[in-house]
Specification:
Strand content: under 5%
Number of helices: 10
Radius of gyration: 37 Å
Distance between the termini: 78 Å
CATH architecture of the largest domain: Orthogonal Bundle
Structural class: mainly alpha
Largest sheet: 2 strands, antiparallel
Order of helices and strands: HEEHHHHHHHHH
């Protein structure tokens, strides 16, 4: 037991000596670099477009200047230090990379770039969440925001209605992503055809416009608007007039866990 303890102490002592030697080596190396920096601090260099290069007399390399032509007076040449303290270099680089301030305030293009990046981030988030292609997620997101719907509601509606299949056709004849009936779609675009409703952009534009109109018509009552979207206004109104609850579970399926209002301001 004693031998084991002595071995541990010896290893610790060796480790401490090694750490001490490394610290001493670092100090010596730092002194070398500081001395070299002090030497080069005294040196000055002419700007690149000047025809000559000279070295100040304070440099230890005095007498080693190379001159291609008679040098003008040093007072006439713009000079800069060959070496600068790290803090000064950092400050200069920070200033150089900062965009120039505009006299009238913030650059509007910066806001546009941020909004564009934010939009792309949200689109890819929905793409990953619902496991659909980014292009389809972009179409749904843009159509929802254009119609004034919260995109989350749009994605939830399409997941229930068509499972994100643009060519989906129900047994009742509902078409496309939002499962629109042709008669309902023609209330918004009279000349729309059945084949056109299978186009994602056309279907999303009309379907989201229809849902947004229902939310507005029913004073922001999202669940009632969804029931009318699913069952039709006549069936819902008939249930209400008979004193029955028009709910059929459709609105709960879409809004489960949803905390939004359904529409944008």
């Amino acid at each position: 037991m004693t031998d084991s303890t002595d071995n541990v102490r010896n290893r610790d002592a060796v480790a401490r000596r090694r750490r001490m030697h490394r610290r001493q080596a670092k100090r010596r190396l730092t002194k070398v670099f500081v001395a070299a920096a002090a030497v080069f601090t005294a040196a000055v260099i002419v700007t690149p477009d000047a025809p000559t290069y000279t070295v100040a007399s304070a440099s230890p390399f005095t007498g080693m200047s190379a001159t291609a032509a008679p040098a003008p007076k040093s007072s006439d040449l713009p000079i800069q230090l060959f070496w600068r303290p790290a803090g000064e270099v950092f400050k200069r680089s920070k200033v150089a990379t900062t965009a120039p301030a505009l006299p009238f305030g913030v650059d509007p293009r910066e806001g546009e770039r941020r909004e564009s990046l934010s939009r792309l981030h949200r689109i890819y988030t929905y793409s990953a969440k619902y496991r659909i292609k980014p292009e389809l997620a972009r179409r749904i997101y843009d159509a929802a925001t254009t119609a004034g719907l919260e995109p989350e509601l749009g994605f939830r509606l399409i997941r229930v209605e068509s499972v994100f299949d643009p060519r989906a056709v129900s047994s009742a004849g509902a078409l496309g992503l939002t499962q629109l009936m042709l008669g309902t779609a023609r209330e918004y675009e009279p000349n729309v055809t059945r084949e056109q409703l299978l186009d994602p952009d056309v279907n999303l534009r009309i379907g989201f416009k229809y849902l947004r109109g229902l939310i507005r018509e029913y004073k922001g009552d999202l669940k009632l608007a969804l029931l009318v979207y699913n069952r039709g206004p006549i069936a819902v109104q008939k249930s209400i007039s008979m004193g029955r609850d028009p709910a059929n579970g459709y609105e709960t399926l879409i809004t489960k866990g949803y905390r939004g209002r359904g529409y944008l301001d």
